[in-house]
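Format notes (please read before filing issues)

Several people have asked whether sequences and structure tokens are stored in separate files. They are not. Every record keeps both together, in the order shown below: the sequence lines, then the token lines. Line labels are part of the format and must not be stripped during preprocessing.
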Amino acid sequence: MIVLGIESSCDETAAAVFDTESGLRSNVIASQAEHIPFGGVVPEMASRAHTERIVPVVRQALTDAGVTLDEIRALAVTAGPGLIGSLLVGVSFAKGVAFIRRLPLVPVHHMEAHVFASRIEHPDLAPPFLALVVSGGHTQLIWVPKWGTYRVLGTTRDDAVGEAFDKVAKILGIGYPGGPLIDRLARDGNADWVKFPKAFIKGDPFAFSFSGLKTAVLMAVEKTPENELELRKADLAASFQKAAVGALVQTTLRAARKMRARRVVLGGGVASNSALRREMEAACARIGIEVTRPSPIFCTDNAAMTACAGAFWFERGRRAGYNFNPNPRLPLDAFGNE
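Then the structure lines:
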């Protein structure tokens, strides 16, 4: 069975073809560099860029996979959460193709797709496991007792960790997107130069908070003499990253012990951060927990994970009518559990 996946939740226009027998056959992503001068995604610009790129991106995905629309059995599309204008472009396009071609339309939750991302390269990955989904818009710990069934254990109380990376990069004046830039800069810095705080929420042991950490970085920058700031940017980046990653790892381990998890699965754009991968694997190894993580190309927003999750739900009967609409705050259980 061959599924075409479409992803447009933020600023990547993506399409992919997934075959349930042979696996991923194509994965095309068009990123929007237009937002770099603004230090963040401009929603109106993002939706306009999606309308310009979605047709050529889908055509390229079909060409790369060596298939035509006649061979597609189902069309999977990100239904939320995300930017409403961006989501509408992908969903409207998917509706049109599904209607003309009489194809089943399968809505996919974006966070669930990030959990499925590891399954693309590890098809034998089996629950139960604990998933940490970390991106520019989300930071969630999700217990997965079986595929298609989820329990959110904890989420962020304020900034998502990826958002904190972007804001700190802006404070340091090093550009956008912040995640890879801070990761790269931190390699040359002293991570112990500033002891930044790790926030833990009393009464909610699996929750996250990164707003205070962002403010602490701003205060450290303001206290640094102007003639030293350029020399200290790597140290500030490394110190911030150590605190952010430390909070992620410690909270994940706390949840893993509580759930008696034997595996942690990473997902989302921040899952490609080298320090998070290194520290999570080392910490989990010390207590006998395995870590599964997707390659960086499947950490960023992509349609391969949407198609993979869509194929799973198509086989289980999930369908959407042509009147369904995306939801920018779509809850993880919006379509029910398996």
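For reference, the curators noted about this record: The mean pLDDT is 96. The longest helix spans residues 226-259.
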